[in-house]
Write a structure and sequence with these properties.
single chain; 151 residues
């Protein structure tokens, strides 16, 4: 009897590859989000340090232009933070889309794997049935041969 061969094996392989690609994409997006969040934390720390510097400068007698420079620097840092927040929002949206696609691909793959198991079970049943038929025929042949030899 022939070896079991699932007709949709290539489709299953493609689904597995697609799933791995989506998993990789998801990890890259999550890594990028984490990197941008860390960047925001760094910028917030810089803003905090600048605020301390400003409070020290305001206690001293300093030029207003120098103080304005610090305010402008803080403002530029805040703009960078706002931009990063916007980028993170977009990345989170992409992350959700990739997650949804990954869920769909995983379900498709599991369905195919389940179908493959069912087909394999059917194949085994058919194989056993075929094997039993052969054994029955051999037994009948053996029985006939014994009867013929006893005559």
């Amino acid at each position: 009897m022939k070896k079991f061969q699932f007709s949709l094996d290539k489709v299953l392989e493609v689904k597995e590859i697609e799933e791995k690609i989506l998993q990789k994409d998801l990890l890259l997006i999550q890594h990028e989000i984490l990197k941008k969040e860390n960047n925001i934390l760094d910028l917030e720390e810089k803003i905090s340090q600048e605020c301390i510097t400003l409070s020290v400068l305001s206690q001293e007698i300093t030029q207003s232009s120098k103080i304005m420079l610090h305010y402008q620097y803080i403002e530029s840092l805040q703009k960078k933070i706002d931009f990063l927040i916007h980028e993170i929002t977009e990345l989170r949206s992409r992350e959700e889309k990739v997650k949804n696609m990954l869920i769909i691909k995983s379900k498709e793959k599991k369905s195919l794997e389940h179908l493959k198991e069912i087909k394999y079970d059917e194949f085994k049943k058919e194989y056993k049935k075929h094997e039993q038929t052969i054994l029955d025929e051999v037994s009948i042949q053996n029985h006939r041969f014994k009867q013929d030899s006893n005559k």
